[in-house]
Amino acid sequence: MKKIVQNRGWIIAGTIAIFTFSILLTIFFSNSVTVKVAELNVRSGPAISYSVKGTVKKGSHLQVIKRQNNWLKVIANHRQVGWVASWLVNDTQITNPHKIAEATIVIDPGHGGADTGAISNTGKQEQTYTLKIAQKVANRLKATGARVIMTRNSNSTVSLNKRPDIAEANHADAFISFHLDSSDDPNSASGVTSYYYHPGRSKQIATAINDQFRSTLPLPNRGVQFGDFLVIRDTNVPSVLLETGYINSDSNFSEIKSPSYQNQVADSVTKGLTNYFAKQA
Protein backbone atom coordinates (compact mmCIF):
# COMPACT_ATOMS: atom_id res chain seq x y z
CA MET A 1 0.00 0.00 0.00
CA LYS A 2 2.86 2.32 0.92
CA LYS A 3 4.54 1.61 -2.41
CA ILE A 4 1.31 2.42 -4.30
CA VAL A 5 1.03 5.79 -2.51
CA GLN A 6 4.67 6.56 -3.32
CA ASN A 7 4.12 5.68 -6.99
CA ARG A 8 1.07 7.90 -7.13
CA GLY A 9 3.15 10.70 -5.60
CA TRP A 10 5.79 10.28 -8.28
CA ILE A 11 3.13 10.22 -11.00
CA ILE A 12 1.53 13.41 -9.70
CA ALA A 13 4.92 15.12 -9.35
CA GLY A 14 5.88 14.00 -12.85
CA THR A 15 2.60 15.25 -14.29
CA ILE A 16 3.07 18.63 -12.62
CA ALA A 17 6.65 18.83 -13.91
CA ILE A 18 5.58 18.00 -17.46
CA PHE A 19 2.73 20.53 -17.26
CA THR A 20 5.05 23.23 -15.92
CA PHE A 21 7.65 22.48 -18.61
CA SER A 22 4.96 22.69 -21.31
CA ILE A 23 3.85 26.09 -20.01
CA LEU A 24 7.45 27.34 -19.98
CA LEU A 25 7.98 26.10 -23.53
CA THR A 26 4.79 27.84 -24.65
CA ILE A 27 5.87 31.08 -23.01
CA PHE A 28 9.35 30.78 -24.52
CA PHE A 29 8.20 30.17 -28.08
CA SER A 30 5.38 32.73 -27.92
CA ASN A 31 8.06 35.32 -27.09
CA SER A 32 10.62 34.13 -29.59
CA VAL A 33 11.34 34.88 -33.24
CA THR A 34 13.25 33.04 -35.93
CA VAL A 35 15.69 35.04 -38.04
CA LYS A 36 14.90 34.82 -41.76
CA VAL A 37 17.31 37.44 -43.09
CA ALA A 38 20.77 36.13 -44.03
CA GLU A 39 22.56 37.88 -41.17
CA LEU A 40 21.35 40.26 -38.47
CA ASN A 41 23.31 42.65 -36.27
CA VAL A 42 22.81 42.49 -32.50
CA ARG A 43 23.34 46.00 -31.11
CA SER A 44 23.89 47.34 -27.61
CA GLY A 45 20.78 49.57 -27.82
CA PRO A 46 17.55 50.10 -29.79
CA ALA A 47 18.91 52.17 -32.69
CA ILE A 48 21.41 51.99 -35.53
CA SER A 49 23.64 54.41 -33.64
CA TYR A 50 24.49 51.80 -30.97
CA SER A 51 27.53 49.55 -31.30
CA VAL A 52 27.32 46.04 -32.76
CA LYS A 53 27.80 43.32 -30.13
CA GLY A 54 27.61 40.42 -32.57
CA THR A 55 25.57 38.86 -35.36
CA VAL A 56 23.05 36.06 -35.73
CA LYS A 57 22.53 33.92 -38.81
CA LYS A 58 19.42 32.88 -40.67
CA GLY A 59 17.49 30.23 -38.72
CA SER A 60 18.59 31.47 -35.29
CA HIS A 61 15.94 31.52 -32.56
CA LEU A 62 15.83 34.69 -30.48
CA GLN A 63 13.95 35.06 -27.22
CA VAL A 64 12.26 38.46 -27.04
CA ILE A 65 12.61 40.27 -23.72
CA LYS A 66 11.38 43.76 -24.63
CA ARG A 67 10.11 45.88 -27.53
CA GLN A 68 11.08 49.53 -28.01
CA ASN A 69 11.04 51.94 -30.99
CA ASN A 70 10.45 49.01 -33.40
CA TRP A 71 13.53 47.23 -32.03
CA LEU A 72 13.53 43.96 -30.08
CA LYS A 73 15.65 43.26 -27.03
CA VAL A 74 16.56 39.60 -27.34
CA ILE A 75 18.67 36.79 -25.99
CA ALA A 76 20.81 35.66 -28.91
CA ASN A 77 23.20 32.74 -29.26
CA HIS A 78 21.83 31.35 -25.96
CA ARG A 79 23.56 33.96 -23.81
CA GLN A 80 24.12 37.28 -25.61
CA VAL A 81 21.60 40.02 -24.78
CA GLY A 82 21.15 42.81 -27.30
CA TRP A 83 18.82 44.59 -29.71
CA VAL A 84 17.78 43.75 -33.28
CA ALA A 85 15.70 45.66 -35.84
CA SER A 86 12.23 44.10 -35.67
CA TRP A 87 11.40 44.75 -39.35
CA LEU A 88 14.44 42.79 -40.52
CA VAL A 89 13.88 39.61 -38.51
CA ASN A 90 11.28 38.20 -40.92
CA ASP A 91 12.62 39.75 -44.12
CA THR A 92 13.30 36.94 -46.57
CA GLN A 93 14.14 39.26 -49.48
CA ILE A 94 17.38 40.76 -48.13
CA THR A 95 20.21 38.29 -48.67
CA ASN A 96 23.14 40.54 -47.75
CA PRO A 97 21.84 43.51 -45.74
CA HIS A 98 23.87 46.72 -45.70
CA LYS A 99 23.87 48.99 -42.66
CA ILE A 100 21.11 51.12 -44.18
CA ALA A 101 18.74 48.16 -43.68
CA GLU A 102 18.70 48.97 -39.95
CA ALA A 103 17.76 52.61 -40.54
CA THR A 104 14.37 54.26 -40.15
CA ILE A 105 13.98 56.88 -42.87
CA VAL A 106 11.09 59.35 -43.15
CA ILE A 107 10.38 60.54 -46.69
CA ASP A 108 8.54 63.84 -47.04
CA PRO A 109 6.95 64.75 -50.40
CA GLY A 110 6.73 68.54 -50.16
CA HIS A 111 3.38 70.35 -50.19
CA GLY A 112 0.15 68.44 -50.93
CA GLY A 113 -3.61 68.95 -50.83
CA ALA A 114 -4.54 72.61 -50.44
CA ASP A 115 -0.84 73.50 -50.62
CA THR A 116 -0.04 73.02 -54.29
CA GLY A 117 3.50 74.34 -54.08
CA ALA A 118 5.12 76.10 -57.03
CA ILE A 119 3.57 76.03 -60.51
CA SER A 120 5.21 75.21 -63.84
CA ASN A 121 4.93 77.46 -66.88
CA THR A 122 2.22 75.10 -68.14
CA GLY A 123 0.21 75.12 -64.89
CA LYS A 124 1.47 71.85 -63.37
CA GLN A 125 1.70 71.66 -59.57
CA GLU A 126 4.84 70.98 -57.55
CA GLN A 127 2.96 68.65 -55.16
CA THR A 128 2.35 66.16 -57.97
CA TYR A 129 6.02 65.67 -58.81
CA THR A 130 7.42 65.72 -55.28
CA LEU A 131 5.09 62.79 -54.56
CA LYS A 132 6.15 60.89 -57.69
CA ILE A 133 9.84 61.30 -56.84
CA ALA A 134 9.35 60.50 -53.14
CA GLN A 135 7.45 57.31 -53.90
CA LYS A 136 10.24 56.08 -56.16
CA VAL A 137 12.78 56.85 -53.45
CA ALA A 138 10.68 55.03 -50.85
CA ASN A 139 10.43 51.93 -53.03
CA ARG A 140 14.18 51.77 -53.52
CA LEU A 141 14.91 52.29 -49.85
CA LYS A 142 12.45 49.55 -48.90
CA ALA A 143 14.32 47.24 -51.25
CA THR A 144 17.47 47.78 -49.15
CA GLY A 145 15.55 46.58 -46.08
CA ALA A 146 15.22 50.03 -44.48
CA ARG A 147 12.11 50.94 -42.50
CA VAL A 148 10.50 53.72 -44.58
CA ILE A 149 7.71 56.07 -43.50
CA MET A 150 6.02 58.59 -45.80
CA THR A 151 4.58 61.85 -44.47
CA ARG A 152 1.95 61.56 -47.21
CA ASN A 153 1.10 58.93 -49.81
CA SER A 154 -1.52 60.88 -51.71
CA ASN A 155 -2.60 64.38 -52.64
CA SER A 156 -3.37 65.24 -49.02
CA THR A 157 -2.62 68.20 -46.79
CA VAL A 158 0.00 67.70 -44.07
CA SER A 159 0.98 70.71 -41.98
CA LEU A 160 4.59 71.86 -41.95
CA ASN A 161 4.83 71.32 -38.18
CA LYS A 162 3.54 67.77 -38.40
CA ARG A 163 6.18 66.61 -40.89
CA PRO A 164 9.21 66.78 -38.56
CA ASP A 165 6.95 65.53 -35.74
CA ILE A 166 6.41 62.32 -37.74
CA ALA A 167 10.18 61.85 -37.93
CA GLU A 168 10.59 62.48 -34.20
CA ALA A 169 7.72 60.15 -33.25
CA ASN A 170 9.20 57.32 -35.31
CA HIS A 171 12.74 57.83 -33.99
CA ALA A 172 13.96 58.33 -37.56
CA ASP A 173 17.62 58.11 -38.45
CA ALA A 174 17.08 60.47 -41.39
CA PHE A 175 14.37 62.81 -42.68
CA ILE A 176 14.41 63.67 -46.40
CA SER A 177 12.07 66.38 -47.74
CA PHE A 178 11.54 66.68 -51.51
CA HIS A 179 10.77 69.95 -53.27
CA LEU A 180 11.01 71.73 -56.61
CA ASP A 181 12.49 75.22 -56.80
CA SER A 182 10.96 78.24 -58.51
CA SER A 183 12.51 81.52 -59.62
CA ASP A 184 10.91 84.98 -59.66
CA ASP A 185 11.19 85.08 -63.43
CA PRO A 186 10.37 81.98 -65.53
CA ASN A 187 13.35 80.29 -67.17
CA SER A 188 15.85 82.41 -65.22
CA ALA A 189 17.32 79.67 -62.99
CA SER A 190 18.26 76.02 -63.25
CA GLY A 191 19.64 73.17 -61.16
CA VAL A 192 19.41 71.06 -58.01
CA THR A 193 20.33 72.07 -54.45
CA SER A 194 20.81 70.04 -51.26
CA TYR A 195 19.95 71.96 -48.08
CA TYR A 196 20.75 71.30 -44.43
CA TYR A 197 20.08 73.42 -41.33
CA HIS A 198 21.95 71.63 -38.55
CA PRO A 199 25.69 70.98 -39.03
CA GLY A 200 27.01 67.51 -38.35
CA ARG A 201 24.96 64.57 -39.55
CA SER A 202 22.42 66.65 -41.48
CA LYS A 203 25.18 68.25 -43.51
CA GLN A 204 26.84 64.86 -43.98
CA ILE A 205 23.62 63.44 -45.44
CA ALA A 206 23.16 66.45 -47.71
CA THR A 207 26.75 66.07 -48.93
CA ALA A 208 26.46 62.32 -49.49
CA ILE A 209 23.31 62.75 -51.57
CA ASN A 210 24.61 65.78 -53.44
CA ASP A 211 27.75 63.88 -54.43
CA GLN A 212 25.48 61.42 -56.23
CA PHE A 213 23.42 64.22 -57.80
CA ARG A 214 26.60 65.80 -59.12
CA SER A 215 27.74 62.62 -60.87
CA THR A 216 24.31 61.43 -62.07
CA LEU A 217 21.74 64.14 -62.76
CA PRO A 218 21.70 66.08 -66.05
CA LEU A 219 20.78 69.41 -64.39
CA PRO A 220 23.35 71.87 -63.03
CA ASN A 221 24.41 71.19 -59.45
CA ARG A 222 24.07 74.20 -57.13
CA GLY A 223 25.80 72.38 -54.28
CA VAL A 224 25.18 71.85 -50.58
CA GLN A 225 23.79 74.93 -48.87
CA PHE A 226 22.49 76.08 -45.48
CA GLY A 227 18.71 76.45 -45.57
CA ASP A 228 16.46 77.93 -42.88
CA PHE A 229 13.39 75.79 -43.59
CA LEU A 230 11.00 74.76 -40.80
CA VAL A 231 10.85 71.07 -41.72
CA ILE A 232 14.60 70.63 -41.36
CA ARG A 233 15.12 73.26 -38.66
CA ASP A 234 12.60 72.26 -35.99
CA THR A 235 13.79 68.70 -35.41
CA ASN A 236 16.54 66.74 -33.70
CA VAL A 237 16.52 64.15 -36.49
CA PRO A 238 19.27 64.44 -39.15
CA SER A 239 17.35 66.19 -41.94
CA VAL A 240 17.82 67.55 -45.44
CA LEU A 241 15.65 69.32 -47.99
CA LEU A 242 16.28 68.55 -51.65
CA GLU A 243 15.32 70.96 -54.43
CA THR A 244 15.45 68.64 -57.44
CA GLY A 245 15.05 71.22 -60.21
CA TYR A 246 13.25 74.45 -61.11
CA ILE A 247 9.64 73.79 -61.96
CA ASN A 248 9.24 77.10 -63.83
CA SER A 249 12.22 76.41 -66.05
CA ASP A 250 11.03 74.74 -69.26
CA SER A 251 14.29 72.82 -69.65
CA ASN A 252 14.26 71.67 -66.02
CA PHE A 253 10.60 70.73 -66.08
CA SER A 254 11.08 68.54 -69.15
CA GLU A 255 13.42 66.48 -66.95
CA ILE A 256 11.34 66.68 -63.76
CA LYS A 257 8.25 65.20 -65.41
CA SER A 258 10.28 62.39 -67.00
CA PRO A 259 10.14 58.99 -65.21
CA SER A 260 13.77 58.50 -66.27
CA TYR A 261 14.87 61.61 -64.37
CA GLN A 262 12.72 60.69 -61.37
CA ASN A 263 14.44 57.29 -61.31
CA GLN A 264 17.85 58.98 -61.46
CA VAL A 265 16.94 61.11 -58.44
CA ALA A 266 15.67 58.05 -56.56
CA ASP A 267 18.82 56.05 -57.34
CA SER A 268 21.05 58.95 -56.30
CA VAL A 269 19.27 59.49 -52.97
CA THR A 270 19.35 55.77 -52.17
CA LYS A 271 23.04 55.45 -52.99
CA GLY A 272 23.87 58.63 -51.08
CA LEU A 273 22.05 57.39 -47.97
CA THR A 274 23.64 53.96 -48.30
CA ASN A 275 27.09 55.58 -48.37
CA TYR A 276 26.23 57.82 -45.43
CA PHE A 277 25.04 55.00 -43.16
CA ALA A 278 27.99 52.82 -44.15
CA LYS A 279 30.34 55.43 -42.66
CA GLN A 280 28.49 55.81 -39.36
CA ALA A 281 30.17 54.28 -36.31
**Ends distance:** 72 Å
- Roughly how much helix do the residues carry, as a percent range? 25-40%
Largest sheet: 6 strands, mixed
Low-confidence stretches: 16-30
The shape, in one word, is elongated
Strand content: 25-35%
Reading the helices and strands in chain order gives: HEEEEEEHEHEHEEHEHEHH
Total helices: the number is: 8
Q: Whole-number average pLDDT?
A: 90
Describe it:
- The chain has about 280 residues and is of the alpha/beta class.
- It has 2 domains: about 30-95, SH3 type barrels (Roll), CATH 2.30.30.40; about 100-280, 3-Layer(aba) Sandwich (Aminopeptidase).
- Helices cover about 40% and strands about 25% of the residues.
- The chain contains 8 helices and 12 strands.
- The strands form 3 sheets. Strands 8-7-9-12-10-11 form a 6-stranded mixed beta sheet, with helices on both faces. A 4-stranded antiparallel beta sheet has the order 1-4-5-6. Strands 2-3 form a two-stranded antiparallel sheet.
- It is elongated.
- The relative contact order is 0.13.
